[in-house]
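QA checklist item 7 of 12: single-chain prediction sanity check.
[x] sequence parsed
[x] length recorded as 633
[x] structure emitted
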Amino acid sequence: MIFENSNVKSQSILIKIILFCILITSFTLVLRNLGHSKIHYWDEGFHAMVARNLTKHPLKFTLYDQPWLEYNYKSWGENHIWLHKPPVAMWKICISHFIFGINAFALRLPSAISLVLSAWLTYRIASDLFDKRAGLIAAFLQAFNPFLFESVHGYRFSDHIDIALLLWVQVSCWFLLRGIRSGKRRNYILSGVAMGIAYLSKSYLALITFGIAFVVWFVAWYKRKIGVSIIDLIVRCFKWIKRRIKPNTDNVVPVETQKSNHILSDTEDIRIRLSDVGLQLLVGILTVAPWAIYCLIKYPQEFLWEHKRVIDHLNTNVENWAASWDRPLFEYMPLFYPFFYAALFAVVLCLLVVMFKHWRLPELFVLAWAIGVIVPHVLAETKTPSATMIAVPPLLICIAAVISRAWQRRDWLYTAIWGASMLSIVGITAIAAQTKGNIQIRNMIPIDGIRSFAPFIHKHFWIIEQLIAFGGLLAFFVGICLITKKEWQKWIWLGVRIVALVIAVLYAGRYVHKAYRVTERNAQIPLYVVSGERIQRELPENVCFFLDDERTGAHFDLMYYADRSTYQINNVHAKSPRNVARQAKEAREAGAIPYLFSVKETEYSYPLLMEGEVDVGNDKKQRYRIYEITETQ
């Protein structure tokens, strides 16, 4: 007994050491070049400016702190009061700015910290649901996720807003799981508070936690009251209908009198009542209420308009992000899971079958989480790339659980699923590479017919090819199990596990390397950093800049570092260039001093106020000139 306890303690210490190494390595890597000076367009530029302005007035959210030109409150891209996103994520950036100053490192540090915390939470949730091996695997996959690295560094169509949402959804799910297992109401209260903070990070997507709670409660209630699986109930409903149409053809056994094996098998671990679900929701609403009431009193038209636009995502083409139903599944989500998306897809399908067969809490919890995120986004009219980010933890836990069960239990079924998923990726990829795409499933079957209703399946048919290969390999492995002798199977499955492990390790190396490559980009804009510091020293606060740099979002770079309102004259998204003379007059009438900030070689007829050259690296210098737009011009 002493040796057994000692072994358990040693194993626990080893697990903690491995987890610590994963988290500290991830944090060290994501910090690499975190402070690159470019402020990225789209999302990062907006949130950077709002957070910067919050350092002056923490309860007033503004994009253009001094709106010298006329603006429409419905246009969030050039608005003054900016409520396009809730406050929590930008408050965290604001606090970072207070501590570390106004710079890009402070802008992104909250995201880097949140990434590591969310990976730790993934470990805790996966360990509680499955086992610590699954927790370590899932934590590793999240800690080095290349898409999350890109979001932290601002390169994706997401930044700290989405990272903050991910973190607080996970906090809420963790407390929810603890509440389900313990029955203690304080856990449901804490889950509700975290859900409210998640809502204050990025609106209604946070309600996924409420959805999980309701689904778990419903399944547990259904098991206690009905005692049969939903599948059995559907079958019996058909039989009942048949009997009503053709009496006496079947003797249907009443649902209450027959039990099924397809029930939630660990109900003793589930302590959730409908009142607990309601308590979680109520606490979440109370957490959000102060901010909502404040905005309704102070900025009612902006708040109501932005709230309406959030709901419009369900049935309206918001900002041209409308797409067919298959785009999230076959174009956006593969970005989150490079190299192994088809394997993840296959694993989830298999776990769905397992869930419907046994109704165990682990599968129910993670699949309710993942499906609850993905399905609404598939059905919504407007589909954005980062909206399914909060499904990353449960999906990674799914594949981690299969790998862990394959090794820990020596289970042939999970070994077959894991082996088939890994071999299908390698096989299809290798065949396509060796034959230069000439021998592919898409060339053997007519797939052009699906383009009209599933254009992204057609575009990314390699996912379907790998799923078809997975199905064939899984059927082959099942056949092996049925026809081979038991004494042989042990060695066969050991071989499959070793092959799958080798493939997984190779892909894990590529996965980490892809994350490393994100940190190599190190996008710099020294021109605006240096000129911005000079402008703050030498020019008054009521300066208004018109910028001739046509790089999309360049005005955010100048505005962030110079802390002066900046309007871009032209870029690829503009319908036409600004009328600088007319708008300079408008700015002057509003109390501003209008200047033209030029990075081009064009010679302007305005009086030159100042100029300078900035070392931009590689022995190159870039010149900038600032002209005063006078009334006579």
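[x] summary fact logged: Strands lie at 543-547, 565-568, 593-598, 608-617, 620-628.
[ ] second reviewer sign-off
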